[in-house]
Design brief:
The complex is a heterodimer. By secondary structure, chain A is of the alpha+beta class. Chain A has helices spanning 5-11, 20-42, 49-72, 75-107, 115-129, 232-236, 287-303, and strands at 13-18, 138-143, 153-159, 162-177, 183-200, 206-223, 250-257, 260-267. Chain B has a domain at 7-97. The longest helix of chain B has 12 residues, at 55-66. In chain B, the strands form 3 sheets. Chain B has a two-stranded parallel ribbon with strand order 1-6. Chain B is 33% helix and 12% strand. The chains are: A alpha+beta, B alpha+beta. The complex binds zinc ion (2 copies).
């Protein structure tokens, strides 16, 4: 089914069970939609402060000039007063017009999506698609709602003196089958702690401090065909030797049981995906590369298990 | 070098991301070097902007000719594997018929619900208990 923008605006969640090519086309439609939203945001009408100032100053100017003109009976001062009054009126009209535009603007819902989500999803579909049949379905779910959406709230608690809210947002899930018969699942989770604390400062005023801690986790699972990789049980004892992950990530666990491999890693680095903003040197933390290396690590073990 | 016999009407490139395997897409062109029929996905353009190359010939031509494969991270999935695994890229030679028919028979999502629940619900010890004040 083709991407339905109206439906997407309601749920902000993308769900699909289509061939990789179709999913890529849908993700492109989401990118276009988001760019449209970003352009719309950039056109937000400016503040009305300047118009108000011009209106006020010219009005006072016109008033003062008119009094002086009346006292001196000068016709040129009278003309100046009229002009100032006209400028003041024009500024007032512009101010009102801008206020109307702002109200109209704020009535149109704007969804500024996190670009990383569709960029990473696109990168992963391209990777997986390279080893899938052209018409094999990909089960995909990408949740574009905010981390701090109430559905993601796990609990509230204390961290030292801080009040903390713990959010767990599993925002991406991708499942499919590769041509060697291996089933894969990729999950991306964003964990967030929203901390705040209120205390009385030296002056006696109450002050509230806030901060956010974010951690990302990627989970890659493979369920492979035992007969294709007969030595997998033997190799899984030393699976760690095959793991090669980006330096900015941390291995959390690797689990090999039967014909299933699960690799979990986390990072607190702020990674990017796709043609993101250019960064200097090699400091880019590429999210697609992260998941690619997880898949390649597990496959390195499978290749050694033949 | 004797010319290989290419199979018509199907992409003959075997490059994949995690392993090499037969491609089931329709050919869109022929490689300008080895004449292999190749699909769009397996096609890159030489620096001259005209010549089309298959993935295998692109890797052989190297970065100078095509701009591909020079950096570790290349956006193209077909080049990731060889960077990661080195030159001896794994060739599984999956037979087209057997592997595709086998994979079509099953639902891609037979990881059980329980599998996915347990993965997500499992607490992240490090982060959840990060009680550091910093
Ligand atoms: Zn070629
Ligand atoms: Zn192909």
């Amino acid at each position: 089914m083709a991407f339905d923008e109206q439906e997407f605006q309601k749920t902000l969640t993308y769900l699909s069970d289509d061939a990789p090519e179709t999913v890529l086309a849908d993700l492109e439609a989401i990118r276009q939609f988001d760019q449209g939203q970003e352009e719309h945001l950039a056109r937000e009408p400016g503040g009305c402060g300047w118009y108000l100032l011009v209106c006020f100053v010219c009005f006072i100017g016109a008033y003062v000039t008119a009094i002086i003109a009346a006292g001196t009976a000068s016709s040129s001062l009278e003309a100046l007063a009229v002009m100032l009054l006209l400028v003041s009126g024009a500024a007032f009209a512009l101010m009102v017009w801008n206020i109307i535009r702002s109200v109209k603007f704020s009535r149109i819902p704007v969804f500024d999506l996190d670009n990383r989500r569709y960029e990473l999803a696109t990168g992963l579909v391209r990777l997986a698609g390279a080893d899938m049949g052209a018409d094999q379905p990909l089960a995909m779910q990408v949740d574009f709602r905010e981390h701090t959406h109430e559905d993601h709230l796990q609990r509230r608690g204390k961290v030292g003196h801080w009040n903390a809210e713990f959010y767990v947002d599993q925002w991406l899930q991708l499942e499919g089958r590769l041509v060697d018969g291996t089933k894969f699942t990729i999950r991306l989770i964003e964990k967030q702690q929203e901390r705040s604390r209120t205390k009385r400062g030296a002056s006696g005023k109450l002050k509230t401090k806030e901060k956010t801690k974010i951690s990302s986790e990627a989970i890659v699972s493979l369920k492979f065909k035992g007969k294709r990789y007969p030595r997998a049980a033997e190799q899984s004892a030393t699976i760690e030797q095959y793991l090669k992950l980006p330096q900015w990530t941390t291995l959390k666990s690797v689990d090999a049981s039967g014909s299933q491999l699960t690799l979990r890693s986390t990072t607190r680095a702020s990674w990017t995906a796709g043609a993101a903003e250019p960064t200097e040197g090699d400091s880019t933390c590429d999210g697609v590369q992260w998941v690619a290396m997880m898949l390649l690590s597990l496959y390195a073990m499978l290749h050694a298990s033949k | 070098m004797p010319k290989k016999e290419w199979q018509p009407d199907i992409c003959n490139e075997k490059a994949g991301f995690l392993f090499s395997h037969a491609c089931d897409r329709q050919p869109a062109a022929n490689c300008g070097n080895c004449d292999k029929p190749i699909c769009k996905k397996h096609t890159t353009r030489r620096r001259d902007g005209v010549t089309l190359l298959c993935t295998t010939c692109t890797k052989e031509a190297g970065a100078e000719d095509t701009g591909r494969g020079s950096s570790y991270y290349d956006d193209d999935p077909y080049y990731y594997g060889s960077h990661y695994y080195g030159d001896h890229y794994y060739d599984d030679r999956y037979d087209r018929r057997s592997s595709y028919s086998e994979s079509r028979r099953n639902d891609p999502r037979d990881f059980t619900e329980a599998d996915s629940e347990s993965l997500v619900a499992e607490a992240d010890g490090d982060f959840e208990n990060d009680m550091s004040e910093s």
